[in-house]
Every structure is written in structure tokens, then in C-alpha cells.
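Hi support team,

I'm filing this because I wasn't sure whether my run with nicotinamide-adenine-dinucleotide finished correctly. The job status page said complete, but I'd like someone to confirm that the output block is well-formed before I use it downstream. Pasting the exact inputs I used:
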Amino acid sequence: MSVSHPAKGAVTVNLGDRSYGIEINGSLEAVGEQLTQLGLGRKIAVVTNPTVKQLYGQRLIDSLKGAEFQVMSIEIPDGEEYKTLDWANSIYTALLINHFDRQSALVALGGGVIGDLTGFAAATFMRGIPFVQVPSTLLAMVDSSVGGKTGVNHPMGKNMIGAFHQPKRVLMDLGVLKTLAKEEFLAGMAEVIKYGIIADAALFDYLDTHRTRILDLDPDALGHIIGRSCEIKADVVAKDEREAGLRAILNFGHTIGHAIETLENYTMRHGYAVAIGMVTASRLAHEGGFCDSSVPERVEKLIKSYGLPTGLSALKRRPAPVEFLDAIQVDKKAEGGTVRFVLPKKIGEVVITKEWDETVLQKILSQ
Ligand code: NAD
Ligand code: GLY
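And here is everything the job wrote out:
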């Protein structure tokens, strides 16, 4: 499977009457004006957390007020542990107290936690109201704000309660990445590298050639890699919104990545776990005859060059291979008892397969 597209500054997710635009080079000051084009009601609630609110809340609120929206803000504490039904309920309560109706809209200002929670609240409040994503982390820009997966965590598992609900628009101000912690930026880079491996060899090469510009947050380089990532995700989502098949390629590296997150009790960042997962899956692909040895070598080299972990030595506790296999089995992408792996055939093309060898994986995991 492969996906190709030219790069540009704005991207459309083509989903019929639910199609929407992703603005890559926007500004917080222009959000109000942009939202006037969406036919929303006057009432808007900005959902954010204290960290992001302090940095960017006022600029966004001023922009919305300048476009004559009635704006309130809802604050959720900062952290994955607040992506819960209880905190979704706190959003519903604030909306009801303030007489929000089905025309009112939510704006998610933050990373993936705020985006997923706000999207879920929007999907469920009064059976669904519009929402807009204003992502403020690299991961949210290239992944979680696009594609309509919304949800909250359950004590028994991450993202176990959720809904597909597409945003009305995704608006990015790349300047906000300047305040993002380096580790958070690198975690997002793991997802960008993922897009290169699954769909775009030229993006993979660009990440190799322009590393310094990217790590220095050069606006043109960031615009290019974020734009290409969004184009690839938009294309996949347009073809397979509800993950009947193709969309699973976006989970490259995630089968092992989720197992690592579980075994590390969610103390390792998702992007870091996915980075190790991508190296492991590439080795599994080579051992299984899906690709030549240059693929795992190049994947490992690029991931390492971005300061991301490539192997299990990065874990706090080294689990036995059998613990890993157990953790993989509970991955919710398991179908009919068999786990499907996304494996590279070459840089820029992957297959989804149940044909992988448990003994080979055990061997890789014990190296
Ligand atoms: P996050 O939302 O927790 O943000 C990371 C940290 O960065 C937080 O402390 C946040 O306050 C801070 N922050 C955000 N923007 C900032 C900025 N501009 N400057 C300074 N600090 C800033 O983490 P994340 O990595 O963005 O998102 C992770 C979540 O995304 C997980 O819950 C995951 O399940 C979800 N996710 C969803 C999808 C999807 O398709 N819906 C895809 C991937 C991940
Ligand atoms: N993050 C994977 C997806 O949106 O399908």
C-alpha cells in the first residue's frame, strides 16, 4: 500500500459533506475570522489546560471575540490522567450552565489530550455539536487533530471509550511549537518519521537531509513536514474513515509501541514507544522476507539521529519476550485472536499482515 500527494500549505480531508480544511500556516490571531466562515452559532467554548491557556489562551480568545463570538473557556488540568469520562462530564456541565445549544461549538486548544477529550465532548453533547481543532503539540498537528478519532481513557484501557467525530476545521499556528518541550517535539517527530516509512520515501529522505533545520524549528521545514504528514493522513482517512482496512497503516510501530507503553505503566511517551516499535517491526519485516536489510538499517539510523530510542534498553525494566507477546495479544487491533502487523516492504510502502513469525519476534525482542 502506498499513498502519494504533492505538498501544499492547506490540506483538505475529503469526506463528502463532512469535508474540512487543515490550515498549516495559520495564526492564532486569524482563528476568529476563519470560524466566521463555518456557519457556527455565536457561542463558543475554548477547552484547554492551564499550561497552554497561560501561553496562548488570551490570543485565541481575543481573536474569537474580535469576530463577535461569545466566548467562554473551560480548563482541564494538564495530563493524560484527566482524559476521562469525569472530565468530559465537567465539560457538559459547563456547557449546560451556560445554555449552549446544538449550534454552539467547542474549540480544542492544546495537545492530543485536550483534542481527544474536547472532540469526544463535542461528539456526545446534545448528540453532537461542531468542534474545531487548534493543535499546539507536534503530535497533535500531524496526527491526533486530523481524522476524527475522539475519546477518553477507561481505568481498564487507553482510548477505550470514544467516537468518530470529524472537526469542522483544523487551524495551526506553527509558532506555538517554540514553547514545546524538546521531548514532546521529538515524540511528534516519531509520527512524522512514521509517515515517511508508510507512504513517502521523499519525506523520509527530507527528514534525513534537513535534520538541523527541523530541530531548529525552521518555519519552512516545519511547514513542509507537517503539511506532508497531514496530506498523507488526510488521504488515508478519506479512503477509510472507520478503519475497515487501509487506515490501520497509520498504526505502523504501534503494536509493539502499545505493548511497551503498557509494560512501562505509561511512563514512556507514546512517540518514544512507537519509535522502538517501528525499528522492531522493520526488523520483523526483514526477517520475514518482506524487505531487504537496508530497510531496518535506514529506519533505525533515522530514528536514532532524532535522539529517539531504538531498542528495549531504553525501558526502565526489560520485560521477558513472553510478557511482550502477552501484551501484544491484548492490543485492541488484534482480530480473531491474530495480531496484524504493519510491515514495511520498502521505505514508503507497507503491508498489513497476519503472516509474522512469533519465534522470530521473540528472537528480535531478546537481542
Ligand atoms: P499532551 O496533549 O499531553 O501534550 C503534551 C504536553 O505539552 C502537555 O503537558 C501540554 O500541556 C504541553 N503543551 C501543549 N502544547 C504546548 C505548547 N505549545 N507549548 C508548551 N507546552 C505545550 O500530549 P500529546 O502528545 O499532544 O497527545 C497525546 C494524546 O494524543 C494521547 O492521549 C493519545 O492517546 C492521543 N492521540 C490521539 C490520536 C487520535 O487520532 N485521536 C492519535 C495519536 C495520539
Ligand atoms: N492515529 C491513528 C489514526 O488516527 O488512525
